[in-house]
Design goal:
homodimer, 360 residues, Rossmann fold, 434 Repressor (Amino-terminal Domain), 42% helix, DNA-binding
DNA sequence: AGTGTTTCTGCAAACGATTGAAATTTTTTG
DNA sequence: CAAAAAATTTCAATCGTTTGCAGAAACACT
């Protein structure tokens, strides 16, 4: 009398005692169904996809077995087979404001209706992390990438390499600047112009600009340009002493910028983002300057943060949801037809919203 | 004179006119290197992984070629081969506050140092989206899932199925309630008790509780419990008329809750989250009630939102980064040793931070 | 020259799923 | 009733990578 252990198919012998417990098969495969029903894997495959060349009887038997055994197709296998994943990767520069969330909502709206999945990664304004995220995305064989660069001078080669590999790439919000790719952006210059014009018309003369470092975020350059044009149009001399470039884009950077302006005559601040504006505004309040009476403050981005601070913040609000939608539409178009034009540019409208922080 | 086109290896004929352009090979594979150097794929594979059984000379030649040709290993293939991806999936209920971002930072901190990649998906407080995200994650064959359920009554079966498939699962922040799984949470009850105690000691008598629907977020039940205990301890009668359950967790829900309290005597509000608290506070201000003089307001979560509003918000601040770190440690431990205890519970400390909104 | 080591490289199977072509079975037809 | 046609199922290759085992080449030692 003896006892043998047969290992059938790809099943490994589970060791329920510990260690190798993880080697228990986790998924039911097409092979398991084939073995169970004593048919070939190809028959199972075809039956499950409803191929009419499989007899109805067999097909139903297989489908029933699949259901009973809890079969779910393994997409990694399918991905490998077809070299596509029906997944779009999104790279955002930050996730701590609701801005990105709204854009992502727009992206998901379109993707969902086109049967695409979405994975999101945040680079936290760090170019190295951005690179890492791009690598992960590529590794997952995503079908296309929607990205917002955190620094227009970084990772340029990587993006170009992605393009060379014919992986569709679309940029949104921040201007990619030195990469030719479809993009969904806002007319920063014009919008900045109108906002500053509003400040001037309401009687402000010494308008400061708090912007991101011009060498990292190109939009900052454009908004600065619009700012400068507005000054010029209204005959106000440009004063470089009240133009501050910040290190980062956090509340603290806005506060620091105000500190730098301490000894300059300033009756208004136009900040590159709402976050900077809010940081600046709170610092102003804490040093005893009234907003908007002493200093008017305006931002750019337009998230609900603007309405929870007091005074409520004047801002330029790009249509974020729409921006996401357009970006998704573009990428899907480029996946379907990779030879589409790479220089397509969609300009998203932005609403200038006047609130308490610039009143009077 | 004639012209033939040879298709070598798996390269498909690119049709530069349109349609099939996407079938151009996107990636350099191990096969391409093998063909180029006229060696077998196995030799290339071994050489690239530094196998000592490959002659140094050959190895270096292959490595050089790989570099030159821009080879990157295709992890989808590796995944299929090994059934693991070295990737952890994170499901967050929302991304529009910095809370999740901090937790994710903590997760990424640990994962990065343990060579795990992280993919994140937000369910936007929607159980259906949560399900969808879980499905995507499973499809990518992620090695483990860190999740924060948006509704403790939804998707329970799905989570249980995930556990049955021996995919490690860890919950954070919100109490999974009816699923036995390792979890990283805060002692809601005790912290709520202390916060309410502080309100009582500073002279408040009619303290309202604004909480999420008790049937969706279990933590709300616990904070309510702590609230009730504090009242009892100080001999204040529990008044159900000033306990409001909100539909959602947005600013507007906080505002609506205040509207519901309009005809009740209330001199303090303890809200389930900062978002609700801020929504409530702003509504109070807009109907002419002073915070904190007329009504003190306190929240729970502790993000930098609390310091940008005025008055600044008193809150309970769980150590979010640490929470993420612990969750990541737990999941990595369970991946390494799937038979670890499923009932492990890590309690993260939370700091009660007293600010202007409850002064006086 | 023949045998035994060592060192190196290639074959082939495997992961799970798909699919054209071939093989099998069943049905139809003269 | 046999041969052709149709219906159904299987074989085998494929996606990119890894790896045990077999086989080849190179070398040393009788």
């Amino acid at each position: 009398m003896f006892c043998e252990i047969y290992l059938v198919g790809n099943e490994k012998l589970p060791n329920f005692e510990g260690e190798n417990f993880d080697s228990v098969m986790k998924y039911v495969t097409i092979k398991d169904i084939a073995r169970e029903l004593v048919v070939s894997v190809s028959t199972v495959s075809r039956a499950l996809r409803g191929d009419p060349s499989i007899r109805k009887e067999t097909r139903e038997k297989i489908q029933a077995a699949a259901k009973r055994m809890g079969y779910v197709p393994n997409p990694v296998a399918t991905n490998l087979k077809f070299g596509r994943t029906k997944t779009i990767g999104v790279i955002v520069p930050e996730m701590s404001t609701p801005y990105a969330a709204k854009v992502i909502d727009g992206i998901q709206d379109i993707c969902y209706h086109n049967n695409y999945k979405v994975i999101i990664a945040s680079s936290s304004e760090d170019a190295d992390k951005e690179k890492e995220n791009l690598d992960i995305m590529m590794q997952f064989m995503i079908d296309g990438i929607i990205a917002c660069r955190c620094d227009y001078n970084k990772n340029t080669e990587l993006y170009k390499k992605i393009q060379e590999q014919h992986i569709p790439l679309v940029f949104y919000d921040r201007i990619p600047h030195n990469i030719e790719a479809p993009q969904v952006i806002v007319d920063d210059e014009t919008k900045a112009f109108f906002l500053v014009e509003h400040l001037i018309r309401s009687g402000r003369k010494n308008i400061a600009y708090i912007g991101a470092n011009f060498d990292t975020v190109y939009n900052s350059v454009l908004r600065h340009k619009g700012y400068r044009e507005a000054l010029q149009r209204y005959g106000i001399e440009y004063n470089p002493n009240i133009v501050v470039q910040t290190e980062g884009l956090n509340y603290s950077d806005g506060a620091t910028a105000v500190d730098k302006l301490r000894h300059e005559k300033t009756d208004a601040i136009f900040a590159f983002t709402d976050t900077l504006a809010i940081g600046a505004m709170n610092r102003l309040k804490s040093i005893g300057r009234n907003v908007p009476r002493d200093v008017a403050v305006a931002g750019f981005s337009g998230t609900n943060l603007c309405t929870i601070v007091s005074p409520q913040l004047t801002t330029v609000e790009p249509r974020q949801f729409e921006m996401g939608q357009k970006a998704a539409e573009l990428i899907i178009k480029h996946i379907a037809n990779p030879s589409s034009s790479k220089s397509e540019q969609v300009i998203i409208d932005a609403d200038i919203i006047y609130r308490e922080s610039t009143e009077g």
